[in-house]
UniProtKB/TrEMBL annotation:
Pfam families: MarR. Residues 28-130 form the HTH marR-type domain. It comes from the Bacteria. This is MarR family winged helix-turn-helix transcriptional regulator.
């Protein structure tokens, strides 16, 4: 019988608890806006990147083209985004975040205390430790996106696959 390394077991548990906390937090924030966690994170993506194509949303989220199209349709109907001609290439369409004071106020309420908590946590580490932490988070993010794409391709119910 193979022995499980207690450090590996603890690391797996911490990772699972962390992932659960992130998903549950973003689901709660999404509910404030009447959105799913993925829809809410799409709005975050648009806030960070500005207007982008649906293809770019898919690249950043790991979602299929069909899933992105349906999500943009829902966000457009809810008044959060609009499709616009790409100013650099009129043959393309970009998805643009619309101004929304209600969303801004709810986001400030939801994230203000969290940002303060994260600032305090980050202040506990020196530059070398922060560099290692950020490398870990970036690498984990890349692995999550790659595995989202992989799992999405396996889904037999996927409408565009």
């Amino acid at each position: 019988m193979t022995q499980v390394d207690p450090v590996d077991q603890a690391a797996e548990l911490v990772g699972r608890e962390f992932a659960m906390a992130v998903v549950v937090f973003h689901e709660a924030v999404g509910r404030l806006l009447g959105l799913s966690a993925v829809e809410r994170k799409c709005l975050d993506l648009l806030q960070r990147l500005g207007p982008v194509t649906a293809g770019a949303i898919g690249e950043h989220t790991g979602l299929t083209t069909g899933a992105v199209t349906r999500m943009v349709d829902r966000l457009s109907k809810a008044g959060y985004v609009q499709r616009c001609p790409d100013p650099h290439d009129r043959r393309k369409v970009v998805v643009q975040l619309l101004p929304n004071e209600r969303m801004d106020a709810l986001m400030a309420t939801a994230f203000g205390p969290f940002v303060g908590d994260m600032t305090a946590i980050m202040g506990r580490y020196d530059d070398n430790e922060l560099s290692a932490i950020l490398d870990f988070v970036r690498s984990t993010t890349d692995a999550l996106l790659a595995n989202t794409r992989r799992v999405t391709r396996l889904d037999p119910a996927r409408p565009d696959g």
